[in-house]
Amino acid sequence: MDVIAFVKQPWPWYVAGPLIGLTVPALLLLGNKSFGISSSLRHICAACIPANIPFFRYNWKKEAWNLYFVGGITLGGIIAGNWLSDPSDMVIHPALAAELSSYGIHSHHALIPADLFSWAALGSLRGSLMMIGGGFLVGFGTRYAGGCTSGHAIMGLSTLQWPSLVATACFMVGGFITANLILPLLLSL
Amino acid sequence: MEHKWFSQLKFLITGTLFGIVFVKAEVISWFRIQEMFRLQSFHMYGVIGSALLVGMLSVLIIRKFNIRTIGGEAIVFHPKKFSKGQIYGGLIFGTGWAITGACPGPLFAQIGTGATVIVITLLSAIAGTWVYGKFRDQLPH
C-alpha cells in the first residue's frame, strides 16, 4: 500500500485527537494565541456588519490571525476533500442507519447526508430548519457561551478552567436532549 | 510586523493542517456527531478526550519550563470568567450542534470539501452571533 492510499483511509481517533490537541501549543508558540474558532464569527460581524453595536466595536484587525486560521481550515477541507478522500461509503452504526432510513435518509456516501444538507434540501421545511435554524443556534449559542468545542472543551479544559467545564457539560446536555428528543421531530417533517 | 500578511501565513498553514485532520478523522461528519449523542460510537469521545489530554500536557510543559513563543514573548493564558451564559449559551449551542452536526470549525471544513450549501449554515451562524451581540445587554449573564 502506498503512502497516499494509506492517508486516504479514515484516520482513527488516536491519530486525529493528539494532532488536534497539538494545535493548542502550536498556536501558543507561534504567536501567543489561544485556540478558539467561534470568535472568528464575531470578527466577521465586527468587520462586515458592526452596525454601531458595542459588542462589535473593537479592533478586529488585531485578531485577524483567527480569520487566517479558519481560512486555512477551509483550505484543508478543499485539499482533503479533493485529493485525500476515501471513495468508499461511510461506515455508520447499524442502529443509526436504520433510524435514518425510517426518515427516508439513505445517502451514506459522503461525510454529511445529501438527503438533509444540499441545495435541493434547502427548499424543504426540514432542510431549511436544520441548516438555517441549526446554524443560527450554533452562532448564537457559542457566542453566548463565550466559546465552542475548541475554545472551551479543548483550550479551556487544557488550562483547567472550571467555567469551561460548565460550558462543555451544557454542550453535551443540549446535544443529547436534541439528538434523541428534538431531532426525531425535525427529521420526520 | 504582527499585522503583515506573511506573519499570518503561519496561522493559515496551521489551520490548513488542522482542517485536513478534521476531514480525515470524520470529525466534520454529521453521522459521527449523531453517533456521539446516541452513545453508538467511541470515536468522537476518543478524538476530544485525546486532544484534551495532549492539550493539557502541552500547557503543563509550557508552564513548568516557562517556554516562550518563537518571537521570545512570555506565553499568556486568558482566564475564562464564569457567567450564566456558559449554561444558557452552552445548551443552545449543544442544540445547534446536534442539528447541524457541526461546531463552527467543521462548518468551514465542510464548505471546503465541496458541501457548498453549508455556506448558508455558516451565514446563519454569523447572523446568530450578530443577534447575540445586538441583544447582549438584555440577556441574562
UniProtKB/TrEMBL annotation, chain A:
Entry keyword annotation includes DNA-binding: no
Localization in the cell: Cell inner membrane
Keyword field: Cell inner membrane, Cell membrane, Membrane, Transmembrane, Transmembrane helix, Transport
Ranges annotated as spanning the membrane: 12-30, 65-84, 116-141, 162-187
Main location: membrane
A Pfam family the protein falls into: Sulf_transp
UniProt key word Membrane: yes
Membrane topology category: Multi-pass membrane protein
Any one GO cellular component localisation term in the record: plasma membrane
PANTHER family tied to this protein: INNER MEMBRANE PROTEIN YEDE (PTHR30574), SULPHUR TRANSPORT DOMAIN-CONTAINING PROTEIN (PTHR30574:SF1)
Family of this protein: Belongs to the TsuA/YedE (TC 9.B.102) family.
Protein name: Uncharacterized protein
Source organism (scientific name): Chitinophaga arvensicola
Lineage of origin: Bacteria, Pseudomonadati, Bacteroidota, Chitinophagia, Chitinophagales
From TrEMBL, chain B:
Keywords: Membrane, Transmembrane, Transmembrane helix
Segments passing through the bilayer: 12-31, 43-62, 87-109, 115-133
Entry-linked Pfam families: Sulf_transp
Name of this protein: Uncharacterized protein
Annotated source species: Chitinophaga arvensicola
